[in-house]
Specification:
Layout (H helix, E strand, L loop, with lengths): L2 H4 L2 H64 L2 H15 L5 H4 L1 H50 L19 E3 L5 E3 L23 H12 L3 H17 L8 E4 L5 H8 L4 E5 L13 E3 L2 H7 L5 E7 L7 H14 E12 L4 H4 L15 H10 L5 E6 L13 H12 L3 E7 L1
Parallel strand pairs: 3-4, 3-6, 4-5, 6-7
Antiparallel strand pairs: 1-2, 7-9, 8-9
Helix pairs in contact: 2-5, 3-5, 7-8, 10-12
């Protein structure tokens, strides 16, 4: 291009017309980058603040544990000293000579001191359990806050990504359409099953028939639950509050409790399961939706029999933490599941039910209960298999171990007290 042509007004106007949209676009991108950088700095600051808060909570938990145990520790030597005094003053077999009254008084003092130590230790364990629960819930709230930080103003959740094929061009300030950054491709949802011409039975009603055949009759399960849980649930305080059976199935436990005058409610999302129930005590609903609607400390027991093995880990966690929330102090959570520590169950019987998702180890359920703030947590093994191995004299220990491994009880229940 000659100098004369380069300096021509026509060429200059043409160059400005071509370059102006590009410059405008660059300025827009620069402003967007500044906004993104500001948001990044804001999120980093929030993360740092939440991290400091978490560190303070953990330090407070450790310090409180040390202080509480320091309060109780002096009682141990006192008890040992009192016992020594008793043994010196009143040797065994010479109570009459030393005075039975003195012996009884000292024994009473020892028992009272021991009760005081146990009470203090239970209080310490309860406060630590509640602190663990509060700590975990604080973490959950912090994660929710972080997840919601990137949402538009006034929204509680991040905005959904636009689907592929949405408008790919926007009109710039100069009136020229600018090519927009391509949106992330949305994950395709599974296509709905077609509407077949010929009907087939639904899962809900078939599952009821499946349980009738493979789990046991209503009478058998009622007898089993009467032996396993009626005394435990009937002895709890606050009889004005109900026992909730989550995933109640055919409702044997609910009917059993009602027949003994206990308040109870059964929740199950399977129409075929609650078909025979009464509307006032059986609720056809997703158990987590129902739980989320209940008030704090509104139930005296939460029972969920053969449910956790149908759930993914995140819902197992929710079940335990929500149970802790809705239970009154002294309330009980019972989670029964197949005993897959026994090979005859874990390698065979567990998989008869096609809706089972995965075996659940009792140590994991005990851990969840502890983290959710439950105090006393124990595992009970239920329903022995009616078969066992035998061996020659001298092999009792080996045979016992083999029976536990190969032919252990069919079920286990993790029982946790709030």
């Amino acid at each position: 291009m000659t100098d004369a042509l380069r300096g021509s007004p026509v060429v200059r106007r043409l160059a400005r017309g071509v370059l102006r949209p590009l410059l405008n676009r660059l300025e827009q991108l620069a402003r967007r980058l500044e906004v993104v950088a500001d948001r990044q700095d804001e999120l980093s600051a929030r993360m740092e603040q939440l991290g400091r808060t978490q560190d303070r909570l953990t330090a407070y938990q450790d310090r409180l544990a040390e202080e509480l145990h320091a309060e109780v520790a002096p009682y141990g030597p006192t008890l040992d000293g009192v016992r020594s005094v008793v043994d010196v003053l009143v040797p065994p077999g010479r109570e009459r000579e030393a005075g039975a009254a003195l012996r009884n008084e000292l024994d009473h003092t020892v028992r009272a001191a021991a009760d005081l130590v146990r009470t203090e230790l239970a209080r310490v364990d309860g406060e630590l359990a509640e602190l663990r629960r509060s700590n975990r819930l604080t973490q959950a709230l912090a994660e929710r806050a972080i997840a919601g930080a990137g949402a538009p103003a006034g929204s509680d959740a991040p905005a959904a990504a636009p689907t592929a094929g949405a408008a790919d061009r926007t009109e710039g300030a100069d009136g020229v359409e600018d090519a927009a950054v391509a949106p992330p491709v949305a994950v395709a949802l599974p296509a709905a099953r077609p509407e077949y011409r010929h009907a087939a039975p639904g899962t809900d009603l078939l599952y009821r028939a499946f349980e009738d055949r493979h789990r046991g009759s209503v009478e058998q399960i009622t007898d089993r639950q009467r032996a396993d849980y009626l005394e435990l649930l009937g002895s709890l305080g606050r009889p004005d509050l109900p026992v909730a059976d989550l995933g109640c199935g055919r409702g044997e436990l609910v009917q059993l409790l009602l027949s003994r005058g206990h308040a109870a409610v059964g929740v199950d999302s399977n129409t075929g399961q609650v078909l025979d129930g009464h509307g006032d005590v059986f609720v056809e609903e997703d158990l987590f939706t129902w739980l989320d609607r209940q008030d704090d400390a509104s139930l005296r027991a939460v029972v969920s029999l053969h449910v956790v093995e149908h759930l993914p880990p995140d819902l197992q966690i929710r079940l335990v933490f929500e149970s802790a929330r809705v239970l009154v102090p002294g309330g009980v959570m019972v989670l029964e599941t197949p005993n897959t520590m026994s090979l005859s169950i874990g390698a065979s019987n567990f998989w008869v039910d096609p809706t089972h998702e995965r075996p659940v180890h009792p140590l994991f359920l005990e851990f969840l209960a502890s983290e959710a703030g439950f105090g006393a947590v124990r595992t009970e093994y239920l329903h022995p298999v009616p078969a066992e191995l035998t061996g020659p004299p001298g092999t009792e220990q080996l045979v016992g171990d083999l029976n536990s491994l190969l032919l252990g009880p069919g079920d286990l229940a993790v029982v946790a007290t709030r």
